[in-house]
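CO-FOLDING WORKSHEET

Operator: S.A.
Ligand of interest: zinc ion
Run index: 386
Mode: holo prediction, single chain
Checklist:
[x] sequence pasted
[x] SMILES validated
[ ] output reviewed
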Amino acid sequence: MPSIKEVSPIANQIIKKYFLCDSCLGRLFSKKLNLSSNMLLGKKLKQNTSPSSKKCYICKNLLDNLAPYLKLMLESTSKYGFSSFVVGTILKPSIIDRDDYIRSKFRLRGIDSVKTDITHELSKQFARKTKKNLEFLDPEVTFTVNFKEKTCQLRSKQISLQGRYNKIKRGFPQKQKSCENCLGKGCRTCDFHGLTDYDSVEGKISKFLFSKFGGTIAKFTWIGGEDKSSLVLGSGRPFFVRIKNPIKQKDRLPKIFKTNSVIIHNCKIIPKVPKKPLTFRSIIEIKVITEEEIQSSSLKKLKKHLASPIVIYGNSGKRSEKKIFNVQYQKNSKNKFTLVVKAEGGFPVKRFVIGDDVVPGVSQIIDNNCKCEEFDFHEIKMTTNN
Ligand SMILES: [Zn+2]
Ligand SMILES: [Zn+2]
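OUTPUT RECEIVED:
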């Protein structure tokens, strides 16, 4: 291991021509000497030189004056709750150029760059001041300190949640139309939420979660969908959602949150939204209206014909199958009956009733033109383990 004495001559040679602050001078040799404090090493190396009021050739004394940037970081976090962070920095290119110049001129290899040192120093000071943890792998907030523009930008880690909802009012869509100005990306008009209205299941859940966690955009993964006129009953429909840029990383959630149209329940934070396609089964109650009078004998055919999977033809000739596990029916009047099916998720209810590229459809089975008046969900059960 080389000693301070050995590097002293070259250190003197450098500062004679290019005066450096303690941190920058120490940095050039600390790795080689296996020392952790650049500043202390810099001080020692300067012991026998006369004190100078010159500015550091590389950093222009930035390393001794990080306080205003630390203040910017603290200000940007005033609303945020978090426990871990990481810092990124953007420096003036001239600082980096001068650092490169000194390193190549004096053939100094394997040392930290001035950018690394500034970032490290700022992180250390922030951690000391706030008692938050510096974490590189999965930090809750990421700072970008821009020394060129004297700004600090903060991004927080998205949070993922899962929950269930019931829809107790008809005429209410599941999905919300995006903000027309930004098409859902987030802009000033929509307060960066990507939505301007909140009159849907998506809107109500988003609003509830924004009130809890803050954040910009809520991105949903739905376990199936329903019609505007459908109700979602029973234990509700599961959903997953990611909230971008939350102010808080955690909060207590009520077991149940009611609005006059949607009830949100069992909402909780999860590590992440599952990526694989999620399979599920639904119990759907379908109100069917027929053109001709219903013959009870024809309804009997439903069970037999729906014992094997129905085939669905898509626009481009794509063919898929859905299984129906259980069929029940009840005649309500001359032209109306209720059909309750337990079916594989993603079942096209209206097309199935009409018989529109779905084989067999209800119309064909009972030999009577049918149409779907409305349909409600009684149960949605996920069949994928996650
Ligand atoms: Zn310096
Ligand atoms: Zn917008």
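REVIEW:
The mean pLDDT is 94.
DSSP finds eleven helices and 16 strands in the chain.
[x] output reviewed
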